[in-house]
Amino acid sequence: MLRLQTPLAERYTAASADQLNERIGAAKAALGDDLFILGHHYQRDEIMRWADERGDSYRLSVLAQQRPQARSIVFCGVHFMAESADILTSDEQRVILPDLNAGCSMADMADIDEVEEAWEALADVTDIERIVPITYMNSSAALKAFVGRNGGAVCTSTNARAVLEWALGLGERAGRESVGAAGSGDKVLFFPDQHLGRNTGVALGYALADMRVWDPRHERGGLTEADCKDATFLLWRGHCSIHQRFLPAQIDAFRAEHPDGIVVVHPECPHETVLLADQVGSTDYIIKAVAQAPAGSTIAVGTEVHLVSRLAQDHPDKTVVSLDPLICPCSTMNRIDLPHLAWVLDELVEGRLVNQITVDPDTAEWARVALRRMLEIV
Q1: d(CA 68, CA 71)
Q2: Is 262 in contact with 279 (CB distance < 8 Å)?
Q3: pLDDT tens string 276-287
Q4: What CATH number does domain 243-322 carry, 2.40.50.140, 3.30.70.260, 3.40.50.10800, 3.30.70.1280?
């Protein structure tokens, strides 16, 4: 998705870190309770220093909603996160993204036109009423609204299992009609991350044979009519560019050097990697897993390197390393830097609103439907 960020003036691009921090501190003091800065776990340390709260995308959006006195929400994350915050906050609050080019490659792998085309193609060969669309939180507001309109729900990496149990009417969630399609579906269209869908489906007891990958670049997703009818999980061909990098060979190399080491990875990692890991879970799960590991442990973590480095700093009694020896950061998240943060705050002090992220009312309402379903499910 093309987004155009206004070039910054030289007083920001040529400023030293100390000068920028002085600007940010002064602006923060001037704005007081009217300002609320949110920092995603994957942000660099110099940004997290200024965050009033830190967390994953959904938790931060909820925290913004719970701070009604803050009129200006500066979201140090990526575009879909700022959209979610705008959906959940009041009309009196404004959500600001310091750099409009801070997108998410995974979220951009599924757009509303492609998903609507997939839905129509599936309707031609299956009973569309039996398909429940599920979108990962890492998706645009338009996709959240799509699943809201079509009886589906949003999920996070923490609650993906519960949401899929609801969609397929499994266990204690069977028949929970109060939240929509529970028990009425026998297959799901899961987007945009195939790995989270696959790993969660396997954890529920399904086989890889129950799954097909939908490739939007090909007619009918590159699948036969029989594939569309037989599969329980139709997984969108999308992935996280960071978590895709964590591979079985890296686990083998780590264990060869640290036989008693612990491997903890995110469920966005490839299935073969997840199978070999000691623990698998969301960002919050990873943070808790490292905290709960015994002192003296050596832990390889399969997630974004800024979080891994912060965990290493926070737990000096343990050795915490990245599972990927090349240590690649999230390049789009990394666009949020001190110059852009200083710029948006200076503009707010001067009474000018820049880089506001807004979601149109109809899209926001249907996206809230999908988010409310998720909350009722879990």
Answers
A1: 7
A2: yes
A3: 999 999 999 999
A4: 3.40.50.10800
- Topology agreement, domain 10-103+332-358 and domain 107-240: yes
- Residue 290, C-beta contacts closer than 8 angstroms, at least 6 positions apart: 264, 299, 301, 311, 315, 318, 320
Judge whether residue 370 has pLDDT over 90.
Answer: yes
pLDDT of residue 3: 61
Residue 297 near residue 319, CB atoms below 8 Å: yes
Asked if the model's pLDDT at residue 1 lies above 70, the reply is no
- Amino acid at the residue 356: Q
Q: What is the structure's pLDDT at 175? A: 53
**Residue 340 corresponds to which tokens in the numbers above?**
């852009």
What is the spatial distance between Cα 39 and Cα 75, in angstroms, rounded to a whole number? 7
Q: Does domain 10-103+332-358 have CATH number 3.40.50.10800?
A: yes
Indicate the domain borders of the chain.
10-103+332-358, 107-240, 243-322
Domain with residues 107-240, CATH architecture: 3-Layer(aba) Sandwich (3.40)
Tell me: the pLDDT tens digits for 67-115? 999 999 999 999 999 999 999 999 999 999 999 999 888 999 999 999 9
**Per-residue pLDDT for 377 more than 60?**
yes
The candidate with the shortest Cα–Cα distance to 373, out of 163, 65, 193, 137, is 163
Reported as a single tens digit per residue, the pLDDT across 150-190 is 999 999 999 999 999 999 998 765 555 544 444 468 999 99
Beta bridge partners of 264: 279, 301
- DSSP conformation letters of 75-137: EES-HHHHHHHHHHS-TT-EEE-S-TT---TTGGGS-HHHHHHHHHHHHHHS-GGGEEEEEES
Rounded average pLDDT over 302-313: 94
What CA–CA distance (Å, rounded) separates 371 from 270?
A: 26
Joined together, the tokens standing for residue 139 give 């998706």
